[in-house]
Amino acid sequence: MTEIKPHAAHWGFFDAVTEGGRLVAVRPFARDPVPASLIDSMPATVHSAARVDQPYVRKGWLEGRRAGHARGGDAFVPMSWDRVTRLLAEETARVRAEHGDAAIYGGSYGWSSAGRFHHAKSQLQRYLGLGGGYTTSINAYSYATAQALIPHVVGTNEVVLGRMTDWAAIAQHAKLMLCFGGLAAKNGYVTSGGAAMTYGPNMRAARAAGLRFVNISPYRGDTEDALAAEWVPIRPGTDAAMILAMVQHIVALGREDRAFLATHCVGWDKLAPTLTDRTPEWAEGITGVPAATIQALAEQCLAQPTMLTAAWSLQRADYGEQPYWALIALAAALGNVGKPGQGVAFGYGSSGGIGNPRREMPGISLPATRNPVSHFIPVGRVTELLERPGGTLHYNGRDLTLPDIRMVWWAGGNPFHHHQDLNRLLRAWAKPETIVVQEPWWTALARHADIVLPATTTLERNDIAHSSRDRFVRAMHQAIPPQGLARHDHDILADLADAQGFRARFTEQRDEGAWLRFLYDKWRTACARQGFQAPDFDSFWAEGHVEMPPIEPHEAFTQFSDFAADPEANPLDTPSGKVELFSETIAGFNRPDCPGHPTWLTPREWLGAAAADELHLLSQQPPTRLHSQLDPGPIAAADKIEGREPIRMHPEDAAVRGLAAGQVVRVFNARGACLAGVRLDPNLTRGVVLLATGAWFDPLEPGVPGSLCVHGNPNVLTADIGTSSLTQGPSAQSCLVRVEAWSGPLPPVRSFHPPVIEEMPA
Ligand SMILES: Nc1nc2c(c(=O)[nH]1)N[C@H]1C(S)=C(S)[C@@H](COP(=O)(O)OP(=O)(O)OC[C@H]3O[C@@H](n4cnc5c(=O)[nH]c(N)nc54)[C@H](O)[C@@H]3O)O[C@H]1N2
Ligand SMILES: Nc1nc2c(c(=O)[nH]1)N[C@H]1C(S)=C(S)[C@@H](COP(=O)(O)OP(=O)(O)OC[C@H]3O[C@@H](n4cnc5c(=O)[nH]c(N)nc54)[C@H](O)[C@@H]3O)O[C@H]1N2
Ligand SMILES: [Mo]
């Protein structure tokens, strides 16, 4: 019998079509004007052979090979839910008793599912918090560097991830938009918890209204053709030099907005003298952008209403603070901050919903619980956490103590996808005594765990999807039964809480249905206070969605407009109340890797210091999936070359290496190596190669650090070094590699099959 159920993922709302308990097709949400094609990868992924069918425990762990033993190479032993629950409850209690609560690392970073109740990380942290606490992580891989820096400069992170100047205002008022890192169309398919319905249409409407786009990026493909953007190729990691040279040129012309700099900013007197020799000619040598282009762009910014933006990728690089801070300085020198549809904001091209006209509505989320442990790390420093127990880490003016981690627990994320320098992670991963992973699939993370608990996917449960960036709330009806012996994260943890005596505090005595009603009603009450009458739960559930009223174009929103109008009455939340072009706070930290004003710092790895045969590797977000999710699906598969992730190369870079399109190559540096398939692309800056993230890490010799990844995961190549001691963000984009033909036999890709399973005598 065919059934159709409303459902949702980060990559779009859809209707699930099922037959006989299987997902056979998906249909886009009828109200979505630009349905994301990624939903088509769901049936094959949900029913993939890579699903974990029951609980497993690593054989070596059962035999006592725990701390100090490499993970990833052992067989797994099946175990019943009852037994594994008891075993894990005992092990958790042991670790807490012997080593303290901070010995459990429960940062559990990752995107998990769109459903807000069953959100795995929230469930896990609730459980670990009630159980005594855990060491956690702060910030996101997406924009960690900005999260630490930007509040020092403009007092709020809303300029990166919140309510920023919206597309309606930009379309109405701006004539020129400089986009460092472009506005990549591929990134707009997804938005956390929601449906990115207006990403492309927003930009195209601005174009139609007369906005001229300039794509300053190593890759022309970072803006879609419909925007007719001018392309300014630039060397990766050098944007700060170009932006500072634009400021310098404006000063040389005597055209900086002195009034704005005096009334709305502090530190111009300190920044300006550092710019004297930062000329466009100087920047040309660093960036590869002709001095004349830099001058022309600066003059065009002076001549017309201009919006400035940069992709989040720019700050996932060595000293990733600098291009962001420099761009704010450029907006300040132009006097644009807070002018209608002008100024600066980050990430318009980075994720669906960024810059959407939006109404500030309450969110829907699982109530958090207190974490009695105060230890944390900036999220990207997980390897260091394992490597240096008792050590200190300088972060944002503080010295953090790294606790001694004995147990790692992950639900809804994948460090063997997201983390840099996987071979170094693999070595550090041997240190804890126990690693627990809740996962629907045999991802690389599950393969490198000790205790693997099979989780249901969203299709197997009821939930509610919501993103503050969207106008829709979506009901997610259970469409298929749990696959194999998979269980909901909530139920897994409720049973563990039971074994440890706090089930009632964890569940608050609600089941799934009661939780959904509770969360929805809370949201509905909060909406009513803001004047929006949402339907009651039963009507919402039957209808499949709630639509919030659209925002009228005349409500176009410009961030910082109050501040621009009257900085004394509406100060920023910085120490000075103004834009900090020099920060006494940051200068006071006394760190050479992040001085008190924006500046050019030479990256560790970049084309300016590359050997003749080295290339700059950018590992951008994949067009064919969300991170590592959906990699088993047909869309990712169709894009691969001989089953390997494609690496884009300029035809001349390929020619000098004797490489041809469709050929399998070995991409390597001192940190690691992977296979990939050559795709020629003249729209790249010479010397730059693109290898998207997300092909499941597939080492030729599982469990052996340094082994070749046969599938094409770029994180065997990237460096794991904090952006700076101020921000400690991930710096994946600063990475040099070499590429050579692969002449050996092609090893099979084994990622989408379960690892070796062995029964053990009871
Ligand atoms: N080289 C390089 N690396 C990068 C980046 C880069 O630009 N370059 N970008 C970084 C960025 S911005 C990000 S956000 C990260 C993304 O990193 P992650 O968010 O860790 O990546 P995902 O693949 O989305 O991992 C989510 C995991 O949750 C699992 N999951 C989904 N639903 C459920 C559920 O209901 N329950 C449970 N238990 N599990 C579930 C999925 O199967 C998947 O394995 O990657 C980062 N890594
Ligand atoms: N389809 C799809 N969409 C996604 C995701 C996904 O996995 N799949 N992930 C989502 C997530 S979690 C996030 S955080 C966002 C990330 O959003 P971004 O960080 O914006 O995404 P990226 O694709 O890493 O980078 C965008 C472009 O920046 C350019 N770039 C890289 N380095 C430099 C540089 O030094 N200078 C300049 N000028 N340009 C540079 C690259 O050419 C790249 O294509 O994307 C989101 N959107
Ligand atoms: Mo991200």
TrEMBL record:
Its cofactor is Mo-bis(molybdopterin guanine dinucleotide). Residues 51-498 form the Molybdopterin oxidoreductase domain. Residues 615-735 form the Molybdopterin dinucleotide-binding domain. Gene3D superfamilies: 2.40.40.20, 3.40.50.740, Dimethylsulfoxide Reductase, domain 2 (3.40.228.10), Dimethylsulfoxide Reductase, domain 3 (3.90.55.10). Residues 7-47 form the Molybdopterin oxidoreductase N-terminal domain. It comes from the Bacteria. This is Molybdopterin-dependent oxidoreductase. It comes from Sediminicoccus rosea.
